[in-house]
Amino acid sequence: MSEPECLYKNWALFDPLPVGVVVLDREYRVHFWNRCIAEWTAIPPAAIMGTDFFERFKNLDRHRYRARIDQVFSGGPAAFFSSQFHPHFIPSRLGNGALRVQTTSVVPVQDGDRFLAMIVIEDVTDLVGQVRAYREMKTIAEKELEERTKTQEALHIANAKLNMVSDITRHDILTQITVISGYLYLLDEILPDDPVLKHYVHKIQNASKIIEKFLVMTREYDQFGVKAPVWQDVTSEVHKAAGMILTGSIRIEINTGALEVFADPMFEKVIYNLIKNAYFHGKKVTKIHVDFIEQDTHGVLTIEDDGAGVPPEQKQKIFEKGFGINIGLGLFLSREILTLTGITIQETGMPGSGARFELMIPKAMYRLPKVSAV
Amino acid sequence: MEIDDEAIDAIRELINIGVGRAAGLLNDMTSRKIALRVPSVRVIRYSDLSHFTEFIPAEELSTITLGFQGPLSGLSALVFPPKSAASLVMLLTGETEQTAELDAIRVETLKEVGNIIINAVMGSIANVLDHHLTFTLPSYQEISLSGLARSQNNHSEEWIVLANTHFNIEQTDIEGNILLVLEVGSMDSLLTGIHRMNR
Asked: Which helix (H) or strand (E) holds B28?
């Protein structure tokens, strides 16, 4: 048996390992070349055993490698070579032609009174690919977040400016409407008792009152969609609205527990509108019942009265802009406020038995915090 | 046993020789201008560790460790706050991503940097000893400095060498620590070696 063959037999234990294993002696001669590294490099052990390692792999014949491997031959600590600085320690190609990415450790192995250097090479191509893909995704996400933050800031500033402009405009228009109303009153007083002229003056007075109502309404809703949604306690919102609208003749029942809804801060206006509608349009309302049930994909908050109800042909129209006795924006804007956090609203009551408004709330947009016992 | 200033100076000198060699290797490997220096070294008895909290951060640190056995037994480590560790790797590799994060690739790279520095320091220390040391494989973990010191035998007679280490890479400074936890009797071996060398 030749010397290289004899040496190979001693190290054959490392042949089945799924990592490249190479053993060098102090003269940098190859003592062992395992099956894995032979497959990776297509260099059979017989072709490399006993040859000069640095002669074969000139990329490693540099001070930065020799200095660290020499320390191993002196019995010093192992040397570790990362994939970022030394991706192809012993270059080898994958099936797709790309170079295999490696991490390498050079470990001292005592052999009698001398030390050999065992080079252990791991294939980390997949791991490195995954980390790089993750980094790319992270970079894209960070850029998108940065862009979104900038856009949000710009929108916030633009919104504030628009609100300021609309505030000033609304104030100026209301002043002019007050002037118009004053002159119309005077005109009404001094005009001859002509029914046609009086009719036109009253028409103009009504129109200016409607314009005033619209402007008041825009002031009430000017924060719509401006502030971020927040969690709101349904019971306290219902009590607040009922306290402002209802008289003692109407009983209110709330059965929503500790329900909180994630909605635009104007959600309180939605509750106010629904209770106001029951009071003003229900005609014979004696009771308003507020309830909540959970279903598979959402929760349903209902506000139900025992009044006149909504005729079938109006069930959709009541949510349209301009419908109703007044300026017709209450339920239209209520629906828009709810839409901001994915909540839908519909009227499902029986005409003659009362109105019933159902708010369909997505799972993520409501919560039922546990109330601790006192 | 008392450790006088002369002994501390000699230990600092040994560490400086090691980090000087390491800086040379890192320069060669990365083609970047890297300067490493150890401005201060503290030698603390394990039982006095709690009195030095101002030098020993409480948070978990990125740590590359190497155990050793022989006339000198214990553990050596290079430690950084995780953000500094990621920044160090990114400076060395020339990466320009916005946020410095220690992912699997950067941990491997940090392990190599730590391996170069610790090996050089241990090589420098081993040179003053008469006997051969055996070493474990380098490993990476996130642990507090006091946790790392406690991971050894926790004998009150153990010594801890804490070497504040400054990296200057392309005009950016990064601060870390080299830590040596020496088991009972190891400090004697080291001081004996130093005295023999100085004779």
From this structure: helix B5-30
Residues of A in CB contact (< 8 Å) with B are 62-64, 67-68, 71, 75-85, 103, 105, 107, 124, 127-128, 131-132, 134-135, 138-139, 142
- pLDDT one-digit tens code per residue, A275-316: 988 888 888 889 999 999 999 889 999 999 999 899 999 888
Distance, CA of B77 to CA of B71 (rounded, Å): 18
Instruction: Quote the DSSP letter at residue B97.
Output: -
Where does A3-123 sit in CATH, by number? 3.30.450.20
Choose among B98, B103, B119: nearest Cβ to A76: B119
- Token pair of A221, please? 């809703």
Domains parsed from chain B with CATH numbers: 5-198 (3.40.1550.10)
In this complex, the residue of A75, A82, A134 whose CB is nearest that of residue B109 is: A82
Give A64's contacts in chain B (Cβ within 8 Å).
25, 28-29
Residue ranges of alpha helices (H) inside chain A are 3-11, 35-41, 45-48, 53-56, 63-73, 125-190, 195-220, 234-245, 267-281, 330-339
DSSP A309: -
pLDDT digits (tens, 9 = 90+) for B38-90: 988 989 888 887 777 666 677 889 999 999 998 889 999 999 888 889 888 98
Least confident of A43-57, A149-163, A219-233: A219-233
**CATH code of the domain occupying A230-367:** 3.30.565.10
CA distance, residue A6 to nearest chain B CA (Å): 28
The model carries a pTM of 0.68
- Cross-chain residue pair B28–A139, CB shorter than 8 Å: no
Residues of A in contact with B115 (CB under 8 A): 77-80
Q: State the ipTM, two decimals.
A: 0.89
**What are A321's two structure tokens?**
């802009």
Looking only at Cα atoms, what is the longest distance across chain A? 136
Is A91 in a helix, a strand, or coil? coil
